[in-house]
Amino acid sequence: MATDNTHSQDIEHTVKIRRCAAVVKGGRRFSFAAMVVVGNGNGKVGWGYGKANEVPPSVEKANKQASREQVDVALVDGTIPHTVHGHYGAGRVTLVPAGPGTGIIAGAAVRAVCEAAGIHNILTKSTGTNNPITLVKATFDALEQLRTRQDIERLRGVSLS
To answer: Which pLDDT belongs to residue 159?
Structure first.
């Protein structure tokens, strides 16, 4: 289900499209919900959730929300600075930095976030649930906890060497 559309240098992944049925007098009326991850491939990434009566408008709404709500991710040489755990609901995600040449070892939902953020080498493990929407939110929880050595030195006012 992952599709890539490159416009204005952004990386876009459609993580999940859900169909919802409302039973009405004439039968079933379907609506669609889309989860999209958008990033610039250089440390900025966001997710969006859009709902509409057709698939393309729902993806557009999600894409617009994802572009608006991007967060900065601390990157060090194409990977993350340290091991981090994120959770959302029943979803648990562990992100571990990896050496050059490792690649992105992750499931589809976590992989979409890592690729959009510009992470090239990372090891991940997701537990608790395999719901892609929950896993994306858990991954963002983990990424927002990342701090570089310079950030820690600045926040604490000490030199770590």
So the answer is: 83
The Cα–Cα gap between 63 and 45 comes to 12
From-to residues of CATH 3.30.160.20 in the chain: 11-71
Whole-model pTM: value is 0.89
Euclidean distance between CA atoms 76 and 81, whole angstroms: 6
CA 2 to chain centre: 12
**Secondary structure string (H, E, C) spanning 102-160:** CCEECCHHHHHHHHHHCCCCEEEEEECCCCHHHHHHHHHHHHHCCCCHHHHHHHHCCCC
The CATH classification number of 11-71 equals 3.30.160.20
Provide CB contacts within 8 A for 156, sequence distance 6+. Answer: none
pLDDT tens profile 110-133:
999 999 999 999 999 999 999 999
Secondary structure class of 95 (helix, strand, coil): strand
Name the CATH topology of 74-150.
Answer: Ribosomal Protein S5; domain 2 (3.30.230)
Q: Contact at 8 Å (CB) between 19 and 52?
A: no
> pLDDT (tens digit, 9 = 90+) per residue, 6-16?
455 789 999 99
CA dist 53 and 44 (Å) reads 30
